[in-house]
Each structure stands twice: as structure tokens, then as C-alpha cells.
Amino acid sequence: MKKPDKHTIACILFAAGATAVGLMLDDPYYLQVLIFIGINTLLALSLNLLMGYAGQISLGHAAFYGIGAYTTAVLSATYGISPWLALPAAIFMAMAVAYIVGKPTLRLSGYYLGMGTLGFGMIVSIVFREWHSVTGGASGFVGIPPLEIAGFALDTDRSYFFLVWAVVLFFFLISRRIIDSRVGRALRAIHDGEHAAAAMGVDTARMKLSIFVLSAAMASLAGFLYAHQIYFISPETFGFMASIRIVTMVVIGGMASIWGSLLGASLLTILPEWLHAFADYEMMVYGLVLMLVMIFLPQGLTRGIIDLYNSSRKKHDQ
Amino acid sequence: MESMLRIRNLKCFYGRIMAVKGISLSVKQGEIIALIGANGAGKSTLMEAVSGILRSWTGEIVFEGKSLKGMDPPAVVRSGISLVPEGRLIFPPLSVYDNLRLGAYTRLRQRAKEEVEQSMEMVTSLFPILEERFTQPAGTLSGGEQQMLAIGRSLMAKPRLLLLDEPSMGLAPLIVEKIMEVLETLRRQGLTIVLVEQNARAALEAADRGYVFETGTVVLEGKADDLLSDQNVKRAYLGKDYEEFDDEQR
Question: Looking at beta carbons, which residues of chain B come within 8 Å of A207?
Fold first, then answer.
């Protein structure tokens, strides 16, 4: 059953759109916002694989984001190692931590898994804050070098924009492949019923651990991109609130939806920027928008917009 | 004749509670066996132990000469035993097709694509309705169709021994009859079947032999026909009222 692959077409259109925007947009502010949207999309996508597809909630995902950022910061700034060598180290570090943490934690489910990962996230964030000699403590870590490709420094917003969105696009394609494969079916089966999945011969424990480790690797990559974009990192960026923000991106954008990760990340990145106009009321309006989205589009933005489109077309046809 | 599945002195534990208290039974190649008994008698627990989902058991479970001790569910499925779980446990948001493909999960890893296609054809010829519903989310099927899907899904693993946990649960009598017919068809194709049922009459009518469970032990075993006419079974499980029962006693 070979169908014309809608996702590939969407990805090509998306890549073309992103390239056009990247070439035409000159305002550094907008380019920066788009870079952050890209990084957040990668984060949201990593959690969406774990939460939306496999149904395993993680309230400590920012920890992996932070591990990626701090590993590359320490290696490239303190020890002067090339960031491109720091990258595999950062990813390996996150995967190793995910493996060690995931092995016992993923035996839990539902609220308990949430609590377990929450605790893990807090421990990591405390380590960032208190390990002064290495991480620079609460005042942050300064002096992370920019990335370079073949002697060409990626220190302009435009070049970084292309790097980030190329990575995002790559993971869109990878994620789709995973989800449509036998492994993806098994993940969704675990989401619906672990017992039933096990009865079908799915090695649920291994499968959950693998997706957790993959998810951590993606989050770590996002942290790497983040660190080399703003050259300065501090513990708050990777704390509890950050974890909650990633969860919110997934839920608002749409669980088990690749494009939902993009929508959720976009909304949660842009919204605070727009809401600066509300000054003191910023957080209230922010909360209100999220509540309204959940009340009127409980399946998330992606599903919600598709449903709205379908129902308006139906009305039009009548 | 050597038995296909032999269980000896099986004891199953949920923490410190012993749910199955020393059960022995045997299933021969090509048989349909019914396990009947009230709620909490240990029937489903036994199924979980055989399929590897429940690991805390002692005693002996031997399938085709190999002990199942310490095997996890994937290993049990690969060895040729497939469970149709209690309450069907299909995957509601996934399409009917994806549900069936999941049943062949352990085989697709072995790159047996063509064989899996054959199984898919076998299942759809057994339950043509499933093919009509291929792209529909499984949650939109009726109860009977969901049960057919659950059975079809388990058959996709190409088992030699099929375990069914209460396939008649919540289904209309006509559908129950249809499902029992399918089991008979499957047996003729060479499948061995163990059936757990509260609907004792339907199960015993389909089965060759039966075991009656009570609070974790087997209290009665024998040919299905004998059990159907056994006074105690009639009183306890076949829903005869006491007056009728008293009449027969006299």
C-alpha cells in the first residue's frame, strides 16, 4: 500500500518556505525569534515522541536540554575543545543519563512517572546551580564560542537560522519514519495499553527506554544549539518551569503530532514576545490564552485547526 | 500422547496473596480446553502466568517440552503461544490494520513479510468484516467486531497454542455462537485452544475437555460433555435454578 507521501511533500514545502524566509528576512530580532522557535520545536518534538506517541510523561525534560547546553559549554569554553567534538559528547552524556535514570523510572507509569521525572529534573537543575567550579553557578556560564563550519563562523543570525531549521527538518523526517515503522506502532500500542502490547510480544520496557534515550538525545542537541546561539547559559533556563513549558508546547500543539510540536513551540515562543505590550498583565494574558486553547481546542492546535477547517468546508458545501 | 502444554503444581502470587494454589493440567495437540469457574477462581491468573505477563509463579509450565520459567511475554509469543486478553484490549486509536500488524510484531522483526501477508489473508478470510474496516480506528468497532479483531490480532503471531480469556464477555448470544464456531474452524486448521470462560455452557459445548476452578484450585475435570451434565457444575455454573435442580435430583 504505497500512497503519495503527504509528509514528505509537506516537509519539502516547509523547507522551501523556511529557506525563503531565511533569505528575505533581514530584521535580526525576527530571525532570533525564529531561531528560538526552531530550538523549541526540536525540544517539543523530542518530548512529543515520548509523551504523545509512547504515552510516557516526563516533567523533567529540561534537564536533558540543560545537560546538552552545559556539556558543550564546559568542553568548548573551559577546555577549548571544538564544539563539533563537544556535540557527540553532549549527546552521549544525555543518553547515558537518560539510560541510568530511565531504567528504574520507566517502571513507573502515569502520575508516578511524572513525579519521578520531576524529581530528576530538580536534581539536575540544582547541580547546575551549585556546582560553581564547573557550571559557573547561579550567575551563569559566560564565553561559549560560536560554531564554525570549515572556517566560516556561524555567528550571524541568518546562518544560524539555516543551521537550526535544517536540524529541525531532519528530525521531522526521522520522526515520521520512526512513527510509521513497526517500532512506531509498538510505541502507540504501549500508549494505549501496556499489558496488551506486552501480550502481543512487544518488549515494553526496552521500547520505552529506547524512546526515552532518543528523546533525551534530541533535547540535548537542542541545548547544544541554544548554548552556541546565545553564548551564555544560566540554570533557570533548564529548571522546572522550562520542563513545564515543554510539556505545554506538546499539549497545546497537539499530542502525537509532529506538526503540532511546531505549532506549540511557535505559539509559546511568540506569545511572550507579543504580550510584552500588556506589561504587568503579561502572565495573566498568557495563562488565559492557554486556557482558551485548551477549552476550545482540547485536542491541541493541530487537530483543532483541521477540525475547524473541515467543519467550515462542510458548511460551505451545504 | 505427549501433551503440548503441561502445567504441574502451579502457584501464582500477587505480592503475598496466592491466587492460584497448586494447579495441574495438560493440553494435548489439537484440543479445545475450557477453564470455567466463578470470578476470582484463578483462571485469568493462570493465563497471565502462561503468557509471561505474570512472572511470580512457582511450579512447572512446559510447552512443547520447553519450560516457560523466566520467559518474558515476547519470548512466549515467539515460542508459539498467543493470548487474547481479557476485555479484548485492542488499541482503540490505531486502525484495524495497524492492530493486526501489531499482532505480528515479533514476526516482522524476523523479516517474514510474505508469511505475515499470508496470515493477514487467513485472518481476513476468517473475519471478512475486519477487511472492510481496515482503515477505521479500532475503537469505532462494535463489541463483537472488537473481539474478532482481538482474536485476529493474536492469530497474526501465528501461534500453535491460542489462549482466550473470556471471549464472550459482554457479547450477544448470537455473536458468542459465531465466535465459538470460529474456534472450531481454527481447531480444524490444527490450532490448539485454551478457553477461559464464565459462560460455562458456551465454553463446554465448544470444548473437548474442561477444568472447573474454585478459589485457586481445580475442583473438577473431565470430558466437556460429562461436565455439562454433572450435577455440581449444573448447580454452580450453568444457571439452573434450584427448583429444576431439585427436580432432577429426585
Answer: none
